[in-house]
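[Automated response] Your request has been received and processed.

Submitted sequence:
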Amino acid sequence: MIPRDYLILHEEDVSELISVELATKAIEECFEEKAEGKFQAMPKQLITGQHGSLVITPGESQSRSQVIGFRCYDVIRDVYDKQEQFTVVYDNYSGQLKGVVFSQMLGAYRTAAINAVMQKKLKKSEIKQLSIIGTGFQANIHFDFFVESLEPQSVLVYGRSPDKVWDFIARKKKRYDMPIKQAESIEEAVKNADSILCATRSREALFTEAQLEHGVTITTIGPKIKGASELPSSLLGSCEACFSDSIEQVHKYGERFFAEDISVVHDFSDILSGKHRGRQWDNEKIVLCSVGMGGTEVVLASKLLDKKKEMLERATNGRA
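Generated structure:
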């Protein structure tokens, strides 16, 4: 048998290796590299089948992690928290396969890290209230990233099912010593909010522009298709600034993107490169559109593979 020089990680491995800190650092590295013009964040590619599609998100780190690869997942069953996903990582210099990571958690941590990094960079000077709209798989992981990066004084959680909201809050209260309460309505959730996470599958606007406070930073990770989005389409034109993690993916949406004018959307890395000023004043309303920056999951997977390799090497040296 030919010795295998690459690693294969599964969900249980990722659960052991991954952390908010590791994922955040990996994503910060990706954004910095993109600002330097040394990161390929390619838009999603679809393999359309009879009953649905496979989605491939490719990308490359050219200077820091120096990896190239892709993540693949299905949109056939349309059940996100049960999707089988795998990420393939190659060394972009030698062409050697570093490993394959079979994990749905990897993609979720990567998405939450992206949005937490963007929120932290564009937040107002003080976050008194963070509002989470949604109680599903993504909302659960985003909560941890947002609380640790934004350090809000309190959190309001809104969901359609009161029982799920209470279960969600009960789990988070075991981990965080801070006020975490249920919002009885969308209106209550967004009123006085300094930071909002919209993590729903709603194809109708969750709130109106008039209900939002000046200075709020809003992240949307739900539907962003024209005529079917969780944010009102006019919001992007009325806010002071709008950013996305991947302008490449926004452009691929083209006329299907929910914004009335797609030109108002800027790439987040433009702030790091100095092309855009970012937030200047606390009263500016900012929208962040999470569309999926290709290649970030490849870099995060590479970090996990490196960490696992180091653990195996230490264990081997310890037995020697």
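Summary generated for your ticket: The mean pLDDT is 94. The two ends are 24 Å apart (CA to CA).
If you did not submit this request, please reply to this message.
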